[in-house]
Every structure is written in C-alpha cells, then in structure tokens.
Amino acid sequence: RMLSIAPFILILCFAFMGTWAIIDFHGFFAAFHGVFFPQGNWTFSSESLLICMYPTAFWMAMGALWLATTALASIIVLAIGRKFAHIGE
C-alpha cells in the first residue's frame, strides 16, 4: 500500500515546489538553501568561480532534469505498488 501512497505524495510535493519555483524562483531558491545552509554560507558574489562555472540556466536545467527523473521514478513505483495491491486482493 505504501508503494501506492508514497510516490503520489512525492509527486504532489514536487509539483508544489515546481510551481513555487516557476512563480517565485528567487524566493524558492532562498528558502531551499536556507533549509540546508541555515548559517547563510550559500551566498556568493556574482564573480565567484562557482557562479561563473554554473550559471542560473545550468541549475534551472538540472532542476528540471531532477524533477523529471523523480516524477518518472515515482510513476514507476506507483504502478508497481498498484500491481502488488491487486495481487494481494
């Protein structure tokens, strides 16, 4: 049963975060990094090597790739969970 519920919840969470990122990318970006770096050491100057090597377009593309991969994996697990649920009946 969890194989049916967990992927669905994960897809909903990612849909919410994706919508938030589309509507307010900078707010989402700050909130996301604030969770993992509460001391605030994730901010860099625009001339820093990290920012120059990985511009915003790279991170947005990677975010879309991570979202698509997670959604696909969740859909596969959801299908497997539903198949097992029917076997158990």
Largest sheet: none
Proportion of residues in β-strands: under 5%
The total count of helices amounts to 4
Task: Return the average pLDDT rounded to an integer.
Answer: 86
- Catalogue the unreliable spans: none
The secondary-structure class comes to mainly alpha
Number of strands: 0
N-to-C span: 12 Å
Gyration radius, rounded: 17 Å
Q: Percentage of helical residues?
A: over 70%
Which overall shape is indicated by the principal axes computed on the Cα atoms? elongated
Architecture overview:
With 89 residues, this protein is mainly alpha-helical. Helices cover 80% and strands 0% of the residues. The chain contains four helices and no strands. Helix 1 packs antiparallel against helix 4. It is elongated and about 55 Å long. The mean pLDDT is 86.
Question: Key features?
Answer:
elongated; 0% strand; 89 residues; single chain
What does this entry show, briefly?
The protein is an all-alpha fold. 80% of the residues lie in helices and 0% in strands. The protein is elongated and about 55 Å long.
